[in-house]
Amino acid sequence: MTGKSTLCCEKVGLKKGPWTPEEDQKLLAYIEEHGHGSWRALPSKAGLQRCGKSCRLRWTNYLRPDIKRGKFSLQEEQTIIQLHALLGNRWSAIATHLPKRTDNEIKNYWNTHLKKRLAKMGIDPVTHKPKNATLSSIDGPSKNESNLSHMAQWESARLEAEARLVRDSKLRSNSFQLQLQQLGSSSSSSAYQAGPNWHGTMWSSKSNKVVSGGLLDESPTSTMTFSDQNLSLPALTVGLISDRTASNNEVVVKEERDEEEEEELKSIGKSNHHFLRSASDIALFPDVYNQHLEGTKWRYETSKSSGDGDDVPMDEVDVNLPPPAGNSNFINGFTELLINPDHNSSSSSSDVGNGTGVDRDGECTDDDDNNNNNRYEQEISKDYWNNILDLVNSSPSDSPPVF
DNA sequence: AATAGAAACAACCGCCACACT
DNA sequence: TAGTGTGGCGGTTGTTTCTAT
After folding, report:
1. How far apart, in whole angstroms, are the C-alpha atoms of residue A48 and residue A44?
2. Which 8-state DSSP code applies to residue A223?
3. CA–CA separation, A110 and A92 (whole Å)
4. Residue A154 has pLDDT above 80, yes or no
5. Which class for A70: exposed (0-12), middle (13-18), buried (19 or more C-beta within 10 A)?
6. Which residue is nearest to the C1' sugar atom of C16, using CA?
7. What angle, rounded to 10 degrees, do the helices at A74-87 and A384-394 form?
8. Which of A308, A319, A383, A402 is most deeply packed, by most CB within 10 A?
9. If we measure between CA atoms, which residue out of A124, A119, A133, A155 comes closest to residue A341?
């Protein structure tokens, strides 16, 4: 090894390779009794001839009690493919959306199963587009591709912010819990609870953007479970702000995050609003979405902070979202947009329908509003990825599907 | 039954970001 | 501010298991 030393030092005599049941037992017993603390110091204390890094990986990927092993379900496969289309090889980010699955396991499954499967079907596993369609954008990105890029960047930035906030929250968990207990003493019970799939995901919000009459007034608090440390905290709600005006049933979702987030955490507790922050949030909270937001017109805005508190608009993208019937369906539509970005802008002879509600100018027309939900119901029922996966599962391996 | 190649899985490696001193 | 330690992440490799011949 060259460069600086790592956890995996070059001590002679440290064992490498597969772990034995005895080693697993030692590691489990030690962590159950003492916690892992410093990984570097753990092996000697636990009586293991392993480096700390090896112990950490073994615990993280295989011994942790909140890990599900075994075959991936069709739903999980679908989710991985869709999230990979959105996030690329960001396995840890993908893993946050798959309950009890580790990034390593997902990565391995992708490399050994899904990537090959997509390739066999004629889909580029990197771009998630049919290989014969990769030249379609030779004249430059389409409007929808541009929209998609915005959304992907948005999601990417969101995940990074979530990770940062998780770190912050863990450090301050005790004081923070106390704070929110105080602030939330007048709140009603939670309208939804995030399950173990959150893996510490946490959001914050810029409270000065709160618009009265917010989306989820009756659900001011929710609970997330931090599965890695059995740490349960009240949820911080979101960093994208929604404004639903009475006149046009429009929700504006804004992305913005800066160092003021710290202060926002406090004011969120005082606020009686909830905010959906991104498309994936809607997918994650389908019940909430169905109850409050169905048929709503969404406008995504991205902005950057100028540093003096003023937000500089960067771009706006109008997108009508499909009414999600479940976690996967929204993403299905989104993924289809990724794979076939021009799909919605041209008439189709198929029964799939053509409406995503985004016209060539990125504007949502009234007709789109009126018909959008029905179109999406049709389109989603088509369920692009389920069809693909069903096709893969049922078809002979050497006969790629026709797109 | 033997064997080679493919597939699947587990683990390692190096880099990076961040916290701490 | 620089140096160091630590843990996380993604890419890659090594080993085992499966399958076809």
Report:
1. 6
2. E
3. 13
4. no
5. exposed
6. A18
7. 120
8. A319
9. A133
% of residues, chain A, pLDDT over 70? 29
CA distance A149 to A138: 16
Residue-level pLDDT at A391: 37
Q: How far is CA A355 from CA A317, A350, A351, A373, in A?
A: 16, 13, 12, 9
Indicate the pLDDT class of residue A64, thresholds 50, 70 and 90.
confident
Contacts of residue A400, Cβ cutoff 8 Å, sequence gap at least 6: A120, A121, A122
Give residue A161's pLDDT: 52
pLDDT of residue A68: 83
CA of A390 to C1' of B11 (A): 33
Q: Read off φ and ψ for residue A91, nearest 5 degrees.
A: -65, -35
Query: Average of pLDDT values for A65-88?
Result: 85
pTM of the model: 0.48
Nearest C-alpha neighbor of A278 from the set A251, A249, A311, A247:
A251
**pLDDT tier at A37, thresholds 50, 70, 90:** confident
Contact assessment for residue A201 and residue A166, using Cβ atoms and an 8 Å cutoff: yes
Q: Is the CB of A100 under 7 A from strand C?
A: no
Is the distance between the Cβ of A14 and the closest atom of strand B smaller than 7 Å? no
Percentage of chain A lying above the pLDDT 90 cut? 0
Let me know: does A214 contact A253? Beta carbons within 8 Å. Answer: no
Out of A71-75, A84-88, A155-159, A345-349, least confident range: A345-349
**In the structure, how far is the CA atom of residue A14 from the C1' atom of nucleotide C12, in angstroms?**
21
Q: What is the mean pLDDT of chain A?
A: 50
The reply to whether A92 Cβ lies less than 7 angstroms from strand C is yes
- For residue A272, which amino acid is it? N
Nearest to A224 by CA among A155, A281, A156: A281
* Closest to A99 measured CA to CA, from A28, A194, A163, A232: A194
How many angstroms separate the CA atoms of A385 and A382, rounded? Answer: 9
Rg (CA), chain A: 23
Positive or negative CA dihedral for A70, A73, A79, A80?
positive
pLDDT of residue A170: 42
